[in-house]
# Entry
Amino acid sequence: MSQNPPDLRPDLAPRARFSETPRAGQPTIGMVSLGCPKALVDSERILTRLRAEGYGISPDYSGADAVIVNTCGFLDSAKAESLEAIGEALAENGKVIVTGCLGAEPEYITGVHPKVLAVTGPHQYEQVLDAVHGAVPPDPDPFVDLLPASGVKLTPRHYSYLKISEGCNHKCKFCIIPDMRGRLASRPAHAILREAEKLVENGVRELLVISQDTSAYGLDLKHAEERGHRAHITDLARDLGSLGAWVRLHYVYPYPHVRDLIPLMAEGLVLPYLDIPFQHAHPDVLKRMARPAAAAKTLDEIARWRADCPDITLRSTFIVGYPGETEAEFQTLLDWMDEAQLDRVGCFQYENVEGARSNDLPDHVPDEVKQDRWDRFMEKAQAISEAKLAAKVGQVMDVIVDDIDEDGVATCRTKADAPEIDGNLFIDEGTETMSVGDIVRVEVDEAGEYDLWGRLR
# Structure
């Protein structure tokens, strides 16, 4: 049993899981998927297309005829991780195709790894398929190679990410995602609903709604209605909530219309959980970030959300050590945290990213000061988390079962916990009749800094 560590990078997707065994003689492709859940969805789409063409999916390099590395370019450290993964794949396999966010900078990749077979950018699915065809021709067996109705999933069968849009219209100075993934491009609501319906029909119990800016969904479509479904996040959330699965909203910017989602949470249509990237609380830091600078109004909004839905869980991410951040500005962030009392918190130490406008700002913060502020921030967040979890002891709640180990210990999540970025609830006894994906009722009898323990009711 492992407890949820406080220093996980808060942008990472769960580890990709492979469940199929390729048939004898089947051409196989390995996949290394790095970065955020949006990239994981891209990996699933690529593998679904390849699986439909008769390719098998290999969980390792040595058993594959070629390897796709889906890269991350969010931070310089993430770029370094991507280059390392490409190098490892080249050493272990030799045939490597690169895609994803870092693929938007092909010269950056080929300058370090000139032997890669091809480099494609994010969501360039056709180019990835062309590269795979060139490296490993397909050899389908129509009597054996049957594609699951839900496609290839890299997450456990009982939950799935549901990507509703690509790109972003924000111009945050520290971020180059819009340069790599483009401006906001929303999927039609009816297409999202159809995908969600198929997922639920095939056993998915939890839908995790993701995009770069979930609140802005449909803005580029002028919130048009098509086939009876309007492209607006409130309408979409209501439609998804009618399917009977848990619906969890990620990456929600605190626009005023977010308050319209809260009644849906109070009614139980979607989970009472908001993942909102506040990033900082001091107005001058937010201004230097080129982000909305209304921290006081944000506290008012939080109070309003909690008044309308007392069970709501608020998750956010923050950046400490942003260029020019003074000790007084950082202290404002700590004071804001005392008032906001957020339930789930992740934190980055600021890093330069090639191409980001924040690189040119004056007064960069020394690394040792960044580390000190990160430590102090996480100490504050941990204390808040510990107190909030302690208040849950004695409560009865529904949890979803993610895993049951060989000793019969079940790792579960409450409605307040997203996979692998938040905490867990552990059940030590009486799990013999439980299965992964079950939603069971428990009473909380112990709390830690990030995790809970409970017993079946």
In short: DSSP finds twelve helices and 20 strands in the chain. The chain has three domains: 28-135, 159-390, 396-456. The chain has a mean pLDDT of 89. The longest strand covers residues 396-404.
